[in-house]
TrEMBL record:
GO molecular function, one term: ribonucleoside triphosphate phosphatase activity
Cofactor(s) the record lists: Ca(2+); Mg(2+)
Keyword Membrane included in the entry's annotation: yes
Binding positions for ATP per the UniProt entry: G203, A204, S205, T206, Q207
Record-given protein name: Ectonucleoside triphosphate diphosphohydrolase 1
Entries under InterPro entries matching the protein: GDA1_CD39_NTPase
Length: 496
């Protein structure tokens, strides 16, 4: 002890040197870590934005997406920042007053202005895609559809965003972009993992899209969409059935039951006690059923409920045509479909309906699911109305919609009681809605590269951790070297 004290006393700069080196070392480490963390945070807080309007048959939705600015054209995750549901019906319902289709979008576009920083407005791309509602309107009245598009375009151009066009999506695009959305959000594309199929049920059309090892696009090439994403090649099977969305399918079912022009029908897909007067003109006012319109005996018919699941299934089966198939295998209506493969995500109305019916758990045996739906359909209308406080128009249709979903899947697409559990009913994946809009924007902004981008070997967090640990290690080694040199320092004053 006394020798040490003597050494310190004889070596006047011994303590100050230690203190100074320690202080400098600590300052260096703190500075290094602070710079790394601040640098990281500043970059991550800068976002870019994109807006997509989904002009569907039943309504229009606006989605705002955001992604970290520095991860443009890279693997950076694009996520949904905001969703706004446009009040009123879909744009295809404004044929008599097209300007109102444009006006209907204004409040959601104003919300978009509030949700995106002002300085980013001019560089925020704005897209509108219209689906089956407008596809039907175009078939029915092409000039009316043009007028609606013009009105919508006028409104969109009046906002400070970078307007990129309003257009009608083809059925294949709707199916393929829904598939891209699901697999992008599930992080399957960057890693080349086995993909998830996509089942989308809208109001006017329904899409099925999946990759099958037994499909390379040579049989029925119209159903093939090929992609190269992140260095992996995909040949996707996709088909969109126009008129088989749940609202048009209900018209097909009603048309089937009223083809002889009766004044009343007992519909097994509606609850016992249900009783509504319907106009023939309204039921048949769609290109999906207009050619089946009976010679009218009366303007209206009484729509009574029968509440019978099995009979409802029979009615629904009759809207599918299973008789002709010119391919090796078909789903229905003579449309080719390869064997089902892998997991499937079922979204949009698949989710709304099955969620309402408490039937989203597909690990429950299909037999039990059918029994529960059968019990629900057999529940009297007065009791259903007492138990649920939602608009009666929607409430009345869940027995039909649930039965339609199961029949479409089992009879139409050929799922079995064994493969039913490969379906997951989904609404959102990591806070972004499942649907075609995200895939559409990713494609149009070139956000998914064909080749795998050169990514740094470490994630940013690992990089910061490694640099910090190495800095501390170097500092400790530096101190140890210094200590090993101390005897030399200590002897010098002694010599003096
Ligand atoms: N129960 C319920 N049904 C919905 C909801 N949103 C839409 N639907 C219905 O689900 C169907 C499909 O809706 P959507 O996917 O928006 O189809 P689109 O309008 O054709 O694009 C339509 O029949 C809608 O009326 C919802 O939040 N709840």
């Amino acid at each position: 002890m006394s020798t040490q004290r003597e050494m310190k006393e004889r070596n006047p700069w011994h303590r100050p040197v230690t203190i100074i080196i320690t202080v400098i070392g600590v300052i260096a480490i703190v500075t290094l870590v602070t710079v790394l963390v601040i640098q990281n945070r500043t970059i991550a807080q800068k976002y870019k934005y994109g807006i997509v309007l989904d002009a569907g048959s039943s309504h229009t939705s606006l989605y705002i997406y955001q992604w970290p600015a520095e991860k443009d054209n890279n693997t950076g995750r694009v996520e949904q920042k905001h969703h706004c549901q446009v009040a009123g019906k879909g744009i295809s319902s404004y044929t008599a007053t097209p300007y109102k289709a444009g006006e209907s979008l204004i409040s959601c576009l104003k919300e978009a202005k509030e949700n995106i920083p002002q300085k980013m407005h001019p560089e925020t791309p704005l897209y509108l895609g219209a689906t089956a509602g407008m596809r039907l309107l175009k078939l029915e009245n092409s000039s009316a559809s043009d007028e609606v598009f013009k009105a919508v375009e006028k409104t969109l151009r009046g906002f400070p965003f970078s307007y990129q066009g309003a257009r009608l999506l083809a059925g294949q695009e709707e199916g393929a972009f829904g598939w891209v959305t699901v697999n992008y959000l599930d992080d399957r594309l960057t890693q080349g993992l086995e993909t998830t199929g996509a089942l989308d049920l809208g109001g006017a059309s329904t899409q099925i899209s999946f990759v099958s090892d037994e499909y390379n696009g040579s049989e029925s090439p119209d159903n093939a969409v090929s992609f190269r994403l992140y260095g992996y090649d995909y040949t996707l099977y996709t088909h969109s059935f126009l008129c088989y969305g749940k609202d048009q399918a209900l018209r097909l079912a009603l048309a089937h039951q009223t083809k002889s022009g009766p004044t009343a029908i007992t519909d097994p897909c509606f609850h016992n006690g249900y009783n509504e007067t319907r106009h023939y003109a309204a039921v048949y006012d769609s290109p999906c059923v207009s050619d089946q319109k009976p010679q009218i005996v009366s303007e209206t018919f009484i729509h009574l409920g029968g509440g019978n699941f099995t009979q409802c299934q029979e009615v629904i089966k009759s809207i599918f045509n299973f008789t002709s198939c010119r391919y090796s295998r078909c789903s229905f209506n003579g449309i080719f479909q390869p064997p089902l493969q892998g997991q499937f995500g079922a979204f949009s109305a698949y989710f709304f309906v099955m969620n309402f019916l408490n039937l989203t758990d597909t690990s429950v045996p299909l037999k039990t699911v059918m029994q529960k739906l059968s019990d629900y359909c057999a529940t009297p209308w007065t009791q259903i109305k007492k138990e649920h406080d939602i608009p009666l128009k929607y409430l009345a249709e869940y027995c039909f919609s649930g039965t339609y979903i199961l029949t479409l899947m089992m009879e139409g697409y050929n799922f079995t009681s064994e493969t039913y559990s490969s379906i997951k009913y989904i609404q959102k994946i990591k806070n972004s809605d499942a649907g075609w809009t995200l895939g559409y924007m990713l494609n149009l902004t070139n956000m998914i590269p064909a080749e795998a981008p050169d990514s740094p070997p470490l994630t940013y967090t690992s990089y910061v951790s490694v640099v910090t640990v190495m800095a501390i290690l170097l500092f400790v080694i530096f101190i140890l070297i210094l200590y090993s040199l101390w005897p030399k320092f200590n002897t010098e004053p002694k010599i003096i």
